[in-house]
Amino acid sequence: MNHDRPDVRHALLFGALWAAEEALTGLLLARYGLAQIVWMRFATHLLIVWLIWGRMQPASLLRTRRPLMHLVRAAALVAMPACWALGMRRGLPPATLMSVFWLAPVLILAMARLLLRERVVPRVWGATALASIGVFVVTGPHRLPDTMLLIYPLGMAMSFSVFLVLTRMLRHEPEPVALTYLGLGVCVLLAPFAAVGWTAPRPTHLLVVGAIALVGIGALLAMGRLVAVSRLSRSAPMAYLQIPFAMALGWWLGVHAPGWEGYAGLAVVLLSVLLAWSHAGAEAGEGAVETAPARLESRL
């Protein structure tokens, strides 16, 4: 058995929980700003982390030699909804935002090659690029926006890529510590923006926030374990497994009923992921070295 091959169970769990988290967040967007929702989610996230792991020894949640790297990771996560909100405010359709965002796995492969010195087999490059085309078909038809506005979805993709690279580099950190610093960083960075136009939350909506936080913690743990076990050059394409779950939830909630183009695009995505996974154990990646991360970690 190849222990560096992506664990499909973690990949599927991550994709399902990520899609559920986004669906739950959508239930609150009509009343609250995105910054407030994310802030409330991570404030609740911190409470849950403390209740589960920190009641006996709360100081243990802060013990790390890499606080700066943790905070940069939190900033990368904050940048994703920030770019989404700015793009929506400038008139970019959600379909365009998502179709460009899903170039992220290609960027992750590039970062894995450049920063982590991982080798990526050509078929994985091709399968990942093909999956991004499948997503473009799923989210279509598209209206060509002002080219300069594409900086927002590209910013989302870049932020997510940095987030996963740092998650891989922090894989030896205890999970509760990583969750704590992520929550603290997000809450501190978003506090000024959440305070602007703050809307008093309804009790029923606080229950939804709690559900988002719980589901989000599950997604973060599944993602962390996925990239801890397998190199990003092998696990990055697994992120596309969020697409079928998002489509299923959209159909179930009556938000979007895909046509034949959507199903065709989904088939391309799934076949591409299968191709990437089947070649994840290729011998081309066995000799990868990771000297660059050590240098980068020492700076952070």
From TrEMBL:
Membrane-crossing residue ranges in chain numbering: 38-56, 68-87, 99-116, 123-142, 148-166, 178-200, 206-226, 238-254, 260-277
Domain of life the protein comes from: Bacteria
Gene Ontology CC terms: membrane
Coiled-coil residues: none
Keywords: Membrane, Transmembrane, Transmembrane helix
Cross-referenced PANTHER family: ACYL-MALONYL CONDENSING ENZYME-RELATED, BLR2811 PROTEIN
The protein's name: DMT family transporter
